[in-house]
Amino acid sequence: MEAEAQPVPDILAPGLRVLFCGFNPGTRSGALGHNYAGRGNQFWRLLAASGLTPRQLAPEEDRSIVQWGLGSTNLVSRATPSAADLSRAELRGGVPRLRRIVDEVRPRVVAYTGKGVYLAASGLDRAEWGEQPTSLFAGVVDFVVPSPSGLARLPFEEKLHWFRTLARLPVLRDT
Q: Global pTM?
């Protein structure tokens, strides 16, 4: 039996290379207090396979990602079994908080973990994978990667393609 859900802390630091933004924590992440802790979640595997981290991390190591210039937040902090359990108003209500976070830490890229996350944040009706033509935040690249959730039906290799494309963005190259 898993513990009762608790807030999963944001992982933030000034000048992040990439700030990942999801819908909200799943119930297992909420129970454990760590990001992307669902049994079928591929986030940590995708980070390592794409070269964004030098090795595959465990969810319990989530706070260490700042050493590679990565961070994590969600539109909604409440843990649920599925993002479908969130109302449209609840998702849109997370946008001002995301704006404050981006204004404070100034990441180079905000990577939305799924088209639905980006659509909820932007209010748009449609998006493609990859870099978006316009950004929600001045001076920041918006990029959409497939959801790492085990519930997302895309094959791992297709997800990995987009995480690798993110890792190769010119704006992420250290000068």
A: 0.92
DSSP, residue by residue, 8-26: PPPB--TT-SEEEEES--B
The whole-number average pLDDT for the span 107-123 is 95
Distances (CA, A) of 155 to 11, 14, 20, 43: 27, 34, 20, 13
| All domains of the chain in start order, with CATH | 18-169 (3.40.470.10)
Euclidean distance between CA atoms 162 and 115, whole angstroms: 12
CA dist 99 and 151 (Å) reads: 28
- According to DSSP, the residues that pair with 71 across neighbouring strands are 19
Q: What are phi and psi of 20, to 5 degrees?
A: -80, 135
What's the rounded Cα separation, in Å, for the pair 63 and 115?
25
Going by pLDDT thresholds of 50, 70 and 90, the confidence category of residue 4 is: low
Cβ atoms within 10 A of the Cβ of 147, count?
23
